[in-house]
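Thread: assembly with ligand

MN 10:42: here's the input set. Chains plus the small molecule as SMILES. Want everything predicted jointly, not piecewise.
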Amino acid sequence: MGLLLKLALLGVALYAAYKTFSRWKGLYDRFVGPPPVPQKPEPPRAPEPASTTQTAQARPKVIEETVQCAGCGAYVSTAAEKCGHCDRPLP
Ligand SMILES: [Zn+2]
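BT 11:07: finished. Tokens for the full assembly:
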């Protein structure tokens, strides 16, 4: 058996393996669908550090003002008229 024949057989085997693989891959893609391509969202413009701190300072704080209930010690919003825990009217 010549070396050339062995190489030819190897090439045929590799070709068959490749064709089988691509065929199954095509079947898989047809039934399952192609793998989702991760879409890279447009990266937002990197703001400069100075402007970042400026916007952070300019942004109003949304921390709600609370007052401690004299009856139960719970912190209740000043917008509430009475404590939600013990129904004690807030000053
Ligand atoms: Zn209370």
